């Protein structure tokens, strides 16, 4: 499985001194990201929004990627189309895919107010974009002659597009086609999917895209920020519309991992309970620790964040690493066994096969990945240990699937970074003791 980087955080261009230059700034990181083992980038919304210093989640002109003088400037917060294409080309040359952030429901920045004749309400629904693509009026939004009731939830009071209107549906399809076939994106992250019908995501996902004369099947993931059952229901619905399977961000797992990191004496046995996407349907789970929203809303993980990364990079799912953690909070820690880079290496080379819990009590969790092998790939498996005790190394003897096997520690971190976990060798029945540092983790791999 691959590893994704969320290549932005809230107001990152301003905070990094790269306003209008973010695409160029990310491009400078591509070579290093490739060498560290990343396989894909998730970029922020690329279209001109209601203001040129907007993160793009209030789209105005979908087809202006930073080349028309409107809404306060020419470039978007991140750059222009040429710079975006250059970034994507650079990523492709280094073997990385790039995913577009799709905001296809709520709009902002309307040029005129209009009275909607259906309900008599006045709204900013007249859009006359300079790209001359996708002009809108009241009938493009809810309530519309095509659909009066919004199929989903309202976001922030913005006018919501009516996808049942053929003009709107066509524009969204043309936008998706442009991003894949012209700009070079390889997939989509859909924002706030509970704000519109799953059929729209499914329709965009299953379209037969072509680029450079070759078919392209995009990777697609939706943001459904809810409980496990709601996400399950959405996945069932959206995948009933498409043969290209759509994934979802695993919010339930993320909140459990936040408790692991930030809640004193959290009971690690809760990690084994049902209710996370990665356990029941791992091929549909994008796992993550924080993102632009959780941090911006003051809900980010504060303590011992490497504990959480150690879980998502050793277990099933498609892990996503957050730019702010990797770069700004310096959790990459290249050249050491203590950081995200070491865990990415573990993920690629060893984290194959099903997870099997070998031991779990309130303070100690031990899991093995059973390994995987086919004609192209071999991942031998691993032993993962998570220690919740804050003042001592902890481990216990467990029965693994490997008899008479030597294991070496490949990644570890905790409140004691000085000590080095020892190599371990299982007996004839596969038994050995595997410890981890206080408030830390250790990953052992077959030597």
UniProtKB/TrEMBL annotation:
SUPFAM superfamilies: (Trans)glycosidases. Ca(2+) 1 binds at residue 105. Gene3D superfamilies: Glycosidases (3.20.20.80), Golgi alpha-mannosidase II (2.60.40.1180). Keywords: Calcium, Carbohydrate metabolism, Glycosidase, Hydrolase, Metal-binding. The keyword Lyase does not apply. Residues 2-373 form the Glycosyl hydrolase family 13 catalytic domain. One of its GO terms (molecular function) is alpha-amylase activity. It comes from the Bacteria. CDD domains: AmyAc_arch_bac_plant_AmyA (cd11314). The keyword Transcription regulation does not apply. Its cofactor is Ca(2+). Its EC number is 3.2.1.1. GO terms for biological process: carbohydrate metabolic process. Belongs to the glycosyl hydrolase 13 family. This is Alpha-amylase.
């Amino acid at each position: 499985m691959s590893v994704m980087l969320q290549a932005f955080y809230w107001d990152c261009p301003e905070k990094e001194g790269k306003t209008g230059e973010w695409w160029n700034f990310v491009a400078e990181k591509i070579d290093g990201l490739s060498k560290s083992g990343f396989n894909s980038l998730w970029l922020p919304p690329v279209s001109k929004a209601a203001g040129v210093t907007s993160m793009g989640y209030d789209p105005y002109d979908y087809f202006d990627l930073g080349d028309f003088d409107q809404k306060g400037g020419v470039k978007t917060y991140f750059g222009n189309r040429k710079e975006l294409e250059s970034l994507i080309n650079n990523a492709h040359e280094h073997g990385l895919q790039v995913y577009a952030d799709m905001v296809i429901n709520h709009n902002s920045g309307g040029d005129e107010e209009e009275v909607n004749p259906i309900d008599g309400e006045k709204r900013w629904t007249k859009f006359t974009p300079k790209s001359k693509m996708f002009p809108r009026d009241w009938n493009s939004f809810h309530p519309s002659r095509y659909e009066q009731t919004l199929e989903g939830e309202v976001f922030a009071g913005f006018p919501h597009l009516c996808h049942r209107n053929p003009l709107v549906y066509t524009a969204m399809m043309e936008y998706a086609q442009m991003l894949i076939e012209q700009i070079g994106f390889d997939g989509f992250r859909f924002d706030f999917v509970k704000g519109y019908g799953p059929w729209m995501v499914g329709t965009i996902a299953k379209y037969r895209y072509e680029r450079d004369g070759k078919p392209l099947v995009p990777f697609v993931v939706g943001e459904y920020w809810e409980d496990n059952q709601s996400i399950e229901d959405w996945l069932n619905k959206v995948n009933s519309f498409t043969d290209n399977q759509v994934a979802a961000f695993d919010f339930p797992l993320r909140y459990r991992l936040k408790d692991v990191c930030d809640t004193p004496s959290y009971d690690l046995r809760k990690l084994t309970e049902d209710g996370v996407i990665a356990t029941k349907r791992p091929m549909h789970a994008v796992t993550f620790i924080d993102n632009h929203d959780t941090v911006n809303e003051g809900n980010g993980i504060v303590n011992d964040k490497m504990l959480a990364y150690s879980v998502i990079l050793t277990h099933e799912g498609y892990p996503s690493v957050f730019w702010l953690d990797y770069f700004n909070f310096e959790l990459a820690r290249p050249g050491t066994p203590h950081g995200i880079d070491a865990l990415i290496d573990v993920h690629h080379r060893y984290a194959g096969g099903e997870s099997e819990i070998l031991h779990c009590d309130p303070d100690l969790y031990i899991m093995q990945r059973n390994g995987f092998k086919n004609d192209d790939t071999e991942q031998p498996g691993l032993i993962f240990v998570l220690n919740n005790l804050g003042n001592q190394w902890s481990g216990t003897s467990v029965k693994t699937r490997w008899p008479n096997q030597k294991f070496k520690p490949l990644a570890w971190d905790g409140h004691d970074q000085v000590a080095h976990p020892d190599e371990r060798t299982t007996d004839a029945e596969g038994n050995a003791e595997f410890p981890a540092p206080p408030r830390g983790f250790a990953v052992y791999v077959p030597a």
